[in-house]
Amino acid sequence: MARSAEQPAPEMRDRILSEATRLFATRGFESTTIQAVAEAVGIRAPSVIHHFPSKAALREQVVEDLMSHWKNEIPRLLTAARSGEDRLSSALEALVQFLMADPYRARLALRELLDRPGETRGLIEQHLLPWMPLVTDYIRLGQQTGVVREDVDPESYVVEVIIMAISTVALGEVLDTVQSRDDEDRLSAMIRELVRMARDSLFVGGEPA
Amino acid sequence: MARSAEQPAPEMRDRILSEATRLFATRGFESTTIQAVAEAVGIRAPSVIHHFPSKAALREQVVEDLMSHWKNEIPRLLTAARSGEDRLSSALEALVQFLMADPYRARLALRELLDRPGETRGLIEQHLLPWMPLVTDYIRLGQQTGVVREDVDPESYVVEVIIMAISTVALGEVLDTVQSRDDEDRLSAMIRELVRMARDSLFVGGEPA
DNA sequence: CCTACCGATCGGTAGG
DNA sequence: CCTACCGATCGGTAGG
User: Fold this and answer.
1) How far apart are the first and last CA of chain A?
2) Does any strand D atom come closer than 7 Å to the Cβ of A9?
3) Distance in angstroms (rounded) separating the CA atoms of residues A45 and A26
4) CA-to-CA distance for B155 and B138, rounded, in angstroms?
5) Which of chain A's residues have a Cβ under 8 Å away from the Cβ of B175?
């Protein structure tokens, strides 16, 4: 009779969050019923509601968990490489790695951007925007020293690269069959081309060898 | 008594399609009720079902209309400019113009890619893929003549550019407030940067001036 | 965490 | 194109 009484199964809440994340990312919030989440974790629908006051609250927590992941990773991404001019390329590759580590991250982000533009914009302004100057100042510095193209619009460039990375990873599953490849899967080729495009459209001159 | 009998209101069907497109694009298919579509055109829900056998059939027609638009526009996009090496840039600007002409096109495409990857992939293979070689062969020709970078992966490049264009236009509303601008709106700056990135990551050398 | 249950809303039908 | 209506499912509550 030590620890059997009424403790609410410590890991159950996390399991619900995990399955809800997966389902919201793949099917979308509206298409996912509480019952589907319950079934995925092996319980009944009302038990899900016991852990989260409402379906909306469940979504909120799922999104918040995603954002806190971002908040933790961003400093790591931005300091991913210190090898001078190649720093931005390495940061981008780290971003892609981060996105591909959990296949639901990119898809969930894209869905939230489409479904709740206002709320998501608020989250972006809160958590992502403060880091922007750190990157754009670095790009402007590169423009002054002549290694970065003069006609680059730093803010637009950064946002475009992030959009490209998120969209590519999120849609990778679909795009994977656009063309068959023998040597490797399509998504890897896309990611590699993405990194190349970001690099070659930023720095002046030809290949960095 | 000439034309009052039982003709099913010729323009009503198109009005339903138009409002359904707008609602599916902005809120998503699952979040859009037949009632909401009916209300938008000023009729009752059962009258919508009279024009389309089911909600799914309405979606099918909306998507088919979008695809037929694409099919008509693609030849025009690909022959948008004949001024030699700048041809691809002009084609891209034409693509962006096409996407921005109807704000719901990009958002609907992105939603369909997320919600129904299998079906959408089929539509892409049918309608878009046949045009791919026309672009990729042109890029490969440019690689042989030395105007296009050697390390460009033609197929990946084309898909990335299309993804970037669709995503940018679709998310433009959200991104518009990432940073305030005095001279022009954020989306225009994003589009211009997108075109620049596509150009500078494709061709060798500095600015074409 | 379960069973039993409910009001609301959904897509769709009947029948003019 | 409308009113009247229905079975199914949804999110959520009650009460253990």
Assistant:
1) 69
2) no
3) 20
4) 11
5) 159, 163
Measured between CA atoms, the residue of chain B closest to residue A155 is B179
Per-residue pLDDT at B161: 97
CA-to-C1' distance for A49 and D8, Å? 21
Tokens linked to A128: 């992502």
For the stretch B49-78, pLDDT in tens is: 999 999 999 999 999 999 999 899 888 888
Residue the block writes with tokens 């509206």: A30
Q: How close A181 comes to chain B (CA, Å)?
A: 11
pLDDT tens string A66-104: 999 989 988 888 886 565 557 888 888 899 999 999 989
**Is the pLDDT at B133 greater than 90, yes or no?**
yes
Chain D: nucleotides below 7 Å from protein CB are 1-4, 9-15
A156 CB near a chain B CB, below 8 Å?
A: yes
B175 and A163 within 8 Å at the Cβ level: the answer is yes
Closest nucleotide (CA of A49 to C1')?
D12
Residues in CB range of A169: below 8 A, 6 or more apart: A96, A99, A100, A103, A105, A106, A187, A191
What is the set of domains in chain B, with CATH numbers?
Answer: 1-53 (1.10.10.60), 61-206 (1.10.357.10)
